[in-house]
Amino acid sequence: MTDITFKDNRLRELRTNYPEKLTQEKLAKIIGVTKRTIIAWEKNERDITPDKAKKLANHFGVDVAYLLGYQEERYLFKDTVTDEPVSEIQSLYDKLNNDNQGKLLDYGHLLLRDQQKTKFDNISDESIKKVRSSGNKAHQRIMDRIENQRRKNEKR
Q1: pLDDT per residue rounded down to tens, the chain (156 residues)
Q2: Which residues constitute the domain of residue 69?
Q3: Relative orientation angle of helices 137-155 and 125-133, to the nearest 10 degrees
Q4: Which CATH number goes with the domain that contains 141?
Q5: Does 33 reside within a domain?
Q6: Residues sharing a CB contact under 8 Å with residue 67, sequence separation 6 or more, in sequence order
Q7: The total number of structural domains that make up the chain
């Protein structure tokens, strides 16, 4: 289980260490907010809303809990993909007949669904309690969504 403790969000760290060093203005345009909003988020003067937290996390390729400072690992699960280049995977796909291409895609979707399912299961109940007790409404709504996803996963 992943255990998380509260700290300030990592937005400034992610933005300034991004390969192209995004400006606050450029990030604001990408996310669909004002530069002032980015500044307020970076100074922890304003909570990042759940939908914007998801957009930011997706943009930087990290988990929402990492972005918000609730966990140390960038991702809730380790990537199990090998270091094979995409071109090798594409080459393999191209060599398959139509039936087998469909099977490969179906299997890939199943693997991805299982991978996404487990990332929510890796958050400990203790961690969810810590976030809930922080009093941060936006973060609590994110935990609500995670718990809802966990319940859906249990039904599958």
Answers
A1: 444 344 688 999 999 987 778 899 999 999 999 999 999 999 989 989 888 988 998 888 888 888 888 877 766 444 444 444 556 777 777 888 988 888 888 887 777 777 766 665 566 667 777 777 777 777 777 777 777 777 776 776
A2: 11-76+122-155
A3: 150
A4: 1.10.260
A5: yes
A6: 9, 10, 11, 14, 48, 53, 56, 57, 60
A7: 1
